[in-house]
Specification:
Layout lengths: L2 H11 L4 H13 L17 E3 L2 E5 L12 H7 L9 E5 L2 H4 L6 E2 L5 H5 L9 E11 L7 E10 L3 H15 L2 E5 L5 E7 L9 E9 L5 E9 L2 E9 L9 H15 L2
Antiparallel strand pairs: 1-2, 2-9, 3-5, 4-7, 5-6, 6-11, 7-8, 8-9, 9-10, 10-11
Helix pairs in contact: 3-7
């Protein structure tokens, strides 16, 4: 991994993204960040484009997937061999899923901060997380942190609805980690993968800095998959549809196992 790029990303996104960035950089730089993970749409409608992010509703009958347990999320997590050209590794339990969201100065922007943490206004009942690399860890340019979350029935839909509204209404906000400095962020437009029951994609960067990450959240019934796409070179792009669709498929399968 290029140290300069990693340092720039840490500086650019400050404490708001500290946990997922550290998890991703540790795996990308060492290539041994953990064991590989194992392995019905609720609303019909047409996909649309929000002002500052891609949004999509499922085009079929809804998955109806119940909230999965921690073990089921772990078994559903993408693993090496699931997606051609990708390496996948499981992250440690506390790499991403132990962080509280940053405090934000605009209430309508809070769901954006919550998308990057394990705790939110709607409690996540279970989580599992890993890292993806296109082309393999250590030599690829596309890396993603992946967080799977389960919610009580109805909460995943409600939370994602609030996130969509936030992406459409929140152009910028100030985020402050516990005991940290305040940092100004901008929320931007980003085309995203249209997968699962519904999804939303947006970009996030420190105000005035070109370095950015692209965040995609895909809902599968009462569960969500959050992809944090981080560029090691060039510009960040959203998770590929084939990846998001495969993860959705595995979550659906886990509910019936």
């Amino acid at each position: 991994m290029r140290t300069r790029t990693r340092t720039r990303m840490h500086r650019a996104l400050a404490g708001l993204l500290a946990a997922p960035l550290l998890a991703l950089s540790a795996v990308a730089c060492t290539g041994d960040g953990g064991d590989s993970a194992e392995g019905k749409k609720e609303d019909g409608g047409k996909g649309g484009q929000a002002r500052d992010g891609g949004t999509e509703r499922g085009s079929g009958p809804g998955s109806g997937v119940r909230p999965l347990t921690k073990g089921e999320l772990g078994s559903a997590l993408l693993r090496k061999g699931d997606i051609s050209g990708y390496d996948v590794q499981r992250a440690k339990a506390d790499d991403i899923a132990s962080e509280d969201p940053a405090e934000v100065d605009r209430k309508e922007c809070r769901p954006i901060a919550e998308a990057l943490a394990s705790k939110s206004s709607y409690a996540r009942t279970a989580t599992a997380n890993g890292t993806l690399a296109k082309g393999g860890f250590g030599d690829g340019a596309v890396f993603q942190a992946l967080l799977l979350s389960a919610y009580d029935d109805g909460d995943a839909r409600r939370w994602l609805g609030e996130l969509k509204k936030a992406v459409g209404a929140c152009e910028a906000f100030t985020g402050t980690e516990s005991g940290g400095d305040a940092t100004d962020f901008t929320v931007g437009r980003a085309p995203g993968a249209t997968a699962g029951d519904e999804s939303v994609t947006f970009s996030l960067a420190q105000k005035g800095d070109e370095a950015a990450v692209v965040v995609t959240v895909v809902r599968t019934g009462a569960n969500t998959a959050t992809y944090l796409s981080i560029p090691l070179s060039g510009k960040a792009t959203a998770v590929e549809r084939s990846v998001a669709a495969k993860q959705h498929e595995k979550l659906v399968a886990a509910a019936g196992s």
